[in-house]
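G., before I forget:
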Amino acid sequence: MTDAPIASGPYDVALLTPDEMASADRLTIAGGISGRTLMGAAGRAVAEVAQAMLGGPGGGGNGVRVACLAGPGNNGGDAFVAAETLRCEGVDVVVFSVCDIDRLAGDAAWAAAAYRGSVEPLGAFTGDGCALVIDGLFGAGLSRPLDAEIANLIETVERAGVPVLAIDLPSGLCGRSGAVLGKAFTADRTVTFFRPKPGHFLEPGRSHCGVLDVRQIGIAPDVLETIAPRQFVNRPALWRADLSLPVDAGHKYDRGHAVVFSGSASRTGAARLAAGAALRAGAGLVTLFSPAGAILVNAAQVTAVMVERCDGERDLARHLDDSRLKAFVLGPGFGVGGTARAYATQILKAGRFLILDADGISSFADRPEELFDEALGQAGEGGPNLVLTPHAGEFKRLFPDLAAKGSLSKLDRTREAAVRSGAVVVLKGRDTVIAAPDGRAAINANGTPWLASAGTGDVLTGMICAQLSQGTPTFEAACAGVWMHGRSAELFGPGLIAEDLAGQLPAMFAELLA
Ligand SMILES: NC(=O)C1=CN([C@@H]2O[C@H](COP(=O)(O)OP(=O)(O)OC[C@H]3O[C@@H](n4cnc5c(N)ncnc54)[C@H](OP(=O)(O)O)[C@@H]3O)[C@@H](O)[C@H]2O)[C@@H](O)CC1
Ligand SMILES: Nc1ncnc2c1ncn2[C@@H]1O[C@H](COP(=O)(O)OP(=O)(O)O)[C@@H](O)[C@H]1O
Ligand SMILES: [K+]
């Protein structure tokens, strides 16, 4: 993302649904800035990016042809402004219009009237000799799947292999959900305005956008106070102010004591991955709670991480008498069953933070209400006491109806799950969504595909646990953990396995705190 304002607070990283974007537009126009001014700025921003794609100013002047595809609404209006700007700069531009330009209305009609170049019907587009396609067919106003003529046109562009610059959204992509309605362009770059939309970050949308440029076109950020958006892209501006860090005169207990439950003797690695990450991510102390049969194998492989026996509810009750134990990870390698359910319930009843992952989640598959009732009763000052970190398969076990409801976006689905469960829900994947029961949600945008590797989810639980054990509010702790995890993967680069992630945390912190 380029040209974003300096990220300093949550509204700088807000995502606007198409309806919220229309409100931003209305509020701005009511405040005295005309729709034409906004469209003029939007179209010029598109032309600037087009020039960059053609090789910089003058790069488009050497006989290369740019095709501007214009739709029936304001997205088409932006395309006409971009076309006229490029034409004035000496670029050979042709507009291919969906409809007769006499049928355009409002600002789009104004933009078409101001264009002095040639216009051809959409059906005349072949892609021959074309160096760039500017997609101004549909943006925020897409209301139904693309018809066959437009879908065929997209295939023609794909076959011709011409680079695509999308205005606002690649046509066919839903800005609210990131879903493809029938067929959509796959753009090399997308220029959007004021703030990005959820569909730019939710898959498959993100994969259709290419490089995302966010341009400011004269909409004042203070309209966000009125609109009060509740979804954000997960960047440090969202949680930096709440992050827990060591204080100068602090001691290790100030930084919290984190606990990770180990599985049985042959399944201990996942818990150690989580424990190591929790320590490196900032917990003051970390203890592995191990069944008696796994103590030797655990003790032989840890140094700064401590090991304690925990073999049943009585042991756990005794441990919970120590109020310094703040946050617990339960699930990685733990085994599915009654023990996991009993421990989870006990921890929540004791008012401690619990990150439930993997087998911990699957243990509640047949009786999710038992977990949800406990979590709904326990939310503290900093938010819920429970964080759930499912991948799509685990999510389906706890929320089968939400997983099956095709009309819900990943953002909607995670939000509904958070409200129902009383937990902060982290629904993982390339486009991890973090949602709180109060309606706030964030879509993560960093990380690399090398994270699709065994054990990386275990490491994530440790990073979230480190923040929870230090007192960071729950939603912010989960967002920070997810971002740190993704950034660590980026810093390591190709060839990453789960064991490599925690080792990148010092470099990640150095960057974050610079
Ligand atoms: N908001 C702002 O601040 C600013 C917004 N700006 C720009 O405005 C854009 C939004 O403009 P917009 O609202 O006119 O919607 P747009 O995407 O052009 O499409 C609507 C038209 O398409 C039609 N249509 C829909 N789906 C269809 C389909 N499948 N197949 C066929 N037709 C279909 C629909 O018809 P209807 O559904 O009404 O029958 C209607 O005629 C936004 O993306 C940005 O580029 C900038 O100028 C800067 C300031
Ligand atoms: N293609 C991808 N791009 C970015 N992150 C990914 C991708 N695939 C998986 N991840 C991340 O990797 C982690 C995998 O976690 P999980 O599925 O629980 O694995 P495991 O159970 O083996 O630890 C999650 O944080 C997820 O968001
Ligand atoms: K478009």
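Residues 132 and 162 are 6 Å apart (CA to CA). The longest strand covers residues 130-136.

More on Monday.
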